[in-house]
Amino acid sequence: MDHFPTNWGRPRDDAVDLYNTYPLHVRPGQRSKDAFAEGVQRTRRERFRHFCRSPHYNLWLNLSCRQPIVTGTSVLAIKFKDGVILAADTLASYGSLARFKDIQRLHPVGTHTVVGAGGDMSDFQHIQHDLDSLIISEFAQADGNTLGPTEIYEYLSRIMYHRRSQINPLWNSLLVGGWNNGESFLGYVDLLGTTYTASTLATGYGAYIAQPLLRKAVEGREKELTEEEGVKIVEESLKVLFYRDARSLNKYQVAVITEKGVQISESRSLETEWGFAEKLRGYGAQTQ
Question: Is pLDDT above 90 for 185?
């Protein structure tokens, strides 16, 4: 019988001595064995090398990034008589954790276009770099032409549909708003390449909660609403979303696009309070 514990083999490597067997004398001419390292880990390494040489490896690489991680919620947009208003809060959630509280989800593109994004923020950063490269390339042509909101909208629809067709979508819902040729423009693009235009649009949870409020306040009055009235409508909708959407925040930004250009505000805070919740049944310590 071998009475040297160091020769028995242990389920841990030499970095951690779980059984406190060291220092012990080792039988001359023999090395200490590690059954875990020489068995299970070696088998895993061999299997992984074999997997890397298989045709499934590239598919696995693509699948590894095919779900949103850090996400933003609703983006709201409406038309008014002089242009378009977009608004979004500044929260990026890591799952259910309110992780990043000062993220700008409204991105200016060119001189008269703004793109607002909900969904995965890393994918939105990829879109931002792509759009910035497109604007630089267009500027370098020096032919006097510029890309307006309709061109950006069509470009994004092709990009999103192409990525969807590659089964590697960009996990975003995008609103494109701007001013071009004396008219306002507002369009929607999502990760499937679905596109449509309207006078009021919303992404995320706002498509269910805020969209009815926006339609009631705006539709039929697009040529009458002033900028101040439009901003107030959007702020009231954001306040409702803050109360109802667990992934929203009471800090937000507003972008106004008119014939003069793009103006994106600094972060603002909504005036909110939860005093009314004491009257709700089931809130807090209430049981009836």
Answer: yes
